[in-house]
Design goal:
The protein is 38% helix and 14% strand. By secondary structure, the protein is of the alpha/beta class. The chain binds pyridoxal-5'-phosphate.
Length: 415
């Protein structure tokens, strides 16, 4: 069977997420996934199991502690396999914002006055402020600005900014407002020619398909696990050859023991272990749709990603088309998803109406959404949008349905 014959079994997907049966959630169309996604039963089970049977200090010799430690290692190992990294390249921290601040602190020591750092005005602030701050140690900050008409980051502008002095390029894989997928591979290739490192923010990308970090070529890549069907923690990938040379920010005796040297302190044990549940869910999704069990975890993820993308395209494109064709509405970003060029994260404003008013109306119709700048305020400001009122954002993932799409369009017609 080719992928064209296989469609995501949406009933199966939704059956894995208890929220859809929960009395408080079940009557809502959930379109705030870019803010945080629901979790499948597998994640809840792993969390419960840990709390019941292994909630002790891990890595001692008695079985409860041994199991706790083994499961923490297993979660790291499985996630490394899912994104094509190795175990020593995975750092689990409290959030992407925290991870990036901690990383910028570690990289600060390699910055000399006059070195250049490129940030964008499309990114969430989490991947801007930590790098802008390095001006305190003499870095010159250059801003890669979006095209004011398309809201996209044009590669020609990047080529004009990058120089022999560029040391760091911080850029989002996918904007949480515009939705466009940026070509991190191309950006990394250009940056590496100048010996600069690339920090990719995958927070708005990873919920739509766990990335292959080696293929992207980035030096660091981060995403928030609470938006990829897990608990409120975040993953930072870093290339081993760079991580091993970063200064130790943890206890003195851990010197040289990377990746534990990056964060001052360890991860949240129970939440780390619950990540096994994300892996199990993804693998069960694979087994439900495909036969060949001999594939690697990464290859299975790839196939599931493709299935999810086709589904997301199908449910998001009618909304993009409706908003784009309606003269009263202003869509931000591309008006169609073609071949994963855009995430189903759809932002818009309405002529002469507050986004808050529109969002309140949608909520009154049981559409879970919101208006905000979503911390990408530089992007909104550049596009001439009120950063307090922000945009209305409809963000979808694999468990949204075509029925929800149709319902939303009918409700949008009432605006
Ligand atoms: C694109 C993007 N980057 C970074 C972040 C920050 O993530 P965290 O909440 O884990 O700090 C967010 C959060 O919404 C985001 O959407």
């Amino acid at each position: 069977m080719t992928l064209k014959n296989i469609q995501l079994d949406i009933d199966y997907v939704r059956s894995q997420f208890p929220a859809f049966k929960d009395l408080n959630c079940k009557d809502w169309s959930f379109f705030e996934n870019a803010g945080g996604s629901y979790v499948p039963q597998q994640v809840i089970d792993k969390l419960n199991e840990f709390m019941i049977s292994t909630k002790v200090q891990p890595y001692a010799e008695y079985p409860m502690a041994k199991n706790a430690g083994n499961n923490m290692d297993l979660a790291t190992e499985l996630f490394a396999k899912m994104i094509n990294a190795n175990n020593k390249e995975i750092i689990i921290g409290g959030s992407t914002s925290i991870n990036l601040y901690v990383l910028s602190n570690a990289l600060k020591y390699s910055i000399k006055p006059g070195d250049e750092i490129i940030v964008t005005n499309q990114d969430h602030e989490a991947n801007i402020s930590p790098w802008r701050r390095l001006s305190e140690v003499g870095a010159i900050i250059k801003e890669w600005k979006i095209n004011p008409v398309t809201a996209e980051l044009d590669i020609e502008e990047f080529e004009k900014l990058i120089s022999d002095k560029t040391r760091i390029v911080a850029v989002t894989h996918c904007s949480n407002i515009v939705g466009s997928v940026n070509n991190l591979k191309q950006i990394s290739d250009l940056a590496h020619k100048k010996n600069a490192i690339v920090i990719g923010d995958g927070v708005s990308y990873a919920p739509h398909g766990f990335p292959n970090v080696k293929e992207l070529g980035v030096d660091f890549y981060t995403f928030s696990l609470y938006k990829t069907y897990g608990p409120h923690i975040a993953l930072l990938y870093g290339k081993e050859e760079i991580l091993k040379n970063l200064p130790n920010q943890n206890h003195e005796f851990l010197e040289g023991n990377y990746p534990y040297t990056i964060n001052p302190g360890g991860p949240n044990h129970e939440e780390l272990v619950s990540l096994i549940g994300i892996h199990d869910y993804m693998m069960e999704l694979y087994t439900h749709h495909f036969n060949d069990d001999s594939l690697s975890i990464r290859d299975k993820i790839n196939k599931v990603n493709n299935l999810i993308s086709l589904h997301e395209e199908e449910i998001a494109n009618p909304i993009l088309e409706y908003i784009d064709k309606n003269e009263n509405l202003r869509l931000i970003g591309k008006n169609k998803i073609i071949n994963k060029n855009r995430a189903p994260t759809i932002s818009f404003i309405v002529n002469n109406r507050l986004s808050k008013e529109i969002s309140d109306f949608l909520v009154s119709e049981n559409i879970a959404t919101r208006n905000d700048n979503f911390y990408a305020w530089r992007c909104l400001q550049y596009l001439g949008i009120d950063t307090d009122d922000g945009v209305v954002r409809i963000s979808m993932v694999q468990y949204n349905t075509i029925e929800e799409t149709q319902k939303l369009i009918e409700i949008l017609k009432k605006i």
